[in-house]
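Late entry, written up from scratch paper. The run itself happened at the end of the previous shift, but nothing got recorded in the book at the time, so transcribing now.
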Amino acid sequence: MRMDTRWPPHFYLIAGCPQAKRNDASLQDMGAKAFNLREMANLGLPVPPALVIGTAYTASPESCLPLLAAHGMPALEAAAGAIFGDERQPLLVSVRSGAPVSMPGMLETLLNVGLCDKTVSGLLRQTGNPRMVWDAYRRLVATFGSVVAGIPAQHFERLTEEVAQGRDERQLDFSEHRSLVRSYLDFFLSSTGQDFPQDPQVQLHQSVLAVFRSWHQAKAQAYRKMHGLGEEMGTAVMIQRMVFGNAGLRSGAGVGFTRNPVTGAPGLWFDYLRNAQGEDVVGGRRRAPGQEAGMPAECLAQLEAAARLLERHFQDMQDLEFTVEEGCLYLLQTRAGKRSGIAAARIALDLQEEGVIDRALALSRTRELTAGELSHTRLAVKDASGLQVLARATPASAGVVSAEVVLDADTARRRAASGAMVVLVRTDAETDDIEGLQVAVGLLTSRGARTSHAAVVARQLGKVCLVGCESMQVDLSLRVLRFGDQVVAEGACLTLDAEGGQVIAGAAEWVEEPDLPLLSRLQGLRHGVEEDGAGCARVAGLAG
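Output as recorded:
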């Protein structure tokens, strides 16, 4: 593809070939997600083609739309080998955010954009998979309704629950998904007074504008304030060819890390859902059973090889998002993974020993760590038989904490302002609760995966986090939690044990133990010598 002098400024094409590079791409303008995606494509990794609209358009997103229609989408269509909005061979796309700095779950994403009544038949002919097609259409109407039209997502969930009758959504057949699409479309009309847009170009343009607008929403502003990030950087928008993790049992979606973000242990650490799309994992409303969930062996081997390559290329542990479509692996994102203090130390030390980074870089990554951050918190008793264990849950971080139960972010802020230590308890692990999570010492959810965006943020903030506590019901009308026959009222004390994956009634005693071997290794790094066991006695200088 030859350089086109008409190619618009701040637009970039990622298509896995040198000819696809457009303009002088900077991380600040492309955003970190697209910048790293381009790196993966240049490394020869399987990346679906994508079009990037730069951060420069955040202040006036409408100005990008004529350029998108005239130049951007034709280039993406050529790279993807399909036509957006075509009735016979339609191109479907995701529309994703991508700020220069990672902001997990704070901005919006839409999937399956381009599906409508006229393109459904073409996708059916292309795939021969009616269940996947109607499931994708259902998801689009719900997400578009929520993100673009402002319809609360729980209204679509209620319609689904009425059909599913307790079944997992993935167990619904194509006729049930098709019926739900019609119910969703009717509800969209009754809620907004307008039909769901059947013109794919209208869907695309409104989706792009909605993702740009999400830069200004409350949770994104709160996250930037919390981390000292500037408002002026803006977000890029990435339009990428869809790959379908909901295409059957040899398909799925996954999110994970090239090393354990809690302990720093080497080896892939990820969640994978068969027959699902990415938002099922990161959105916080679904429990993912972990990496033993039926990922095709050949895709797992490819993922492991990609993880090794990416760690060496970026010189750090990576946070990956990926999709498997009918046995083919596609990488959708890589970024430096959020991690605990203990993980930060071990990963830096291990990468140095493996020759991936040098001593100076390992020192810079561990210089600010204190002895407190390099300690393990555990229950004071080895045997929990004397404690009232209410439920089991999936640990998404480390540590133990006892605190007062609160059931929403506003209550968390109010109680924390009065000096109380609080645990935020929610049904879903969602980033909308960011301001409550900031002041809480722990997070407990009945749904969600350990790699959901909310769990990632909780780990980054050093909070004790348990997700997927399926036996717990949150009753907001009565302001209580139900664990079978046990009822815990808001304001009561709970203990979250992320070491053992336990929810315990009342306040349990816990102890903090320094990780002496890790401290000794750090001592050796900082002094440039190998430490033996005696060096553990000289770690006081690490405390701060």
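The chain has a mean pLDDT of 90.
(Scratch paper discarded after transcription.)
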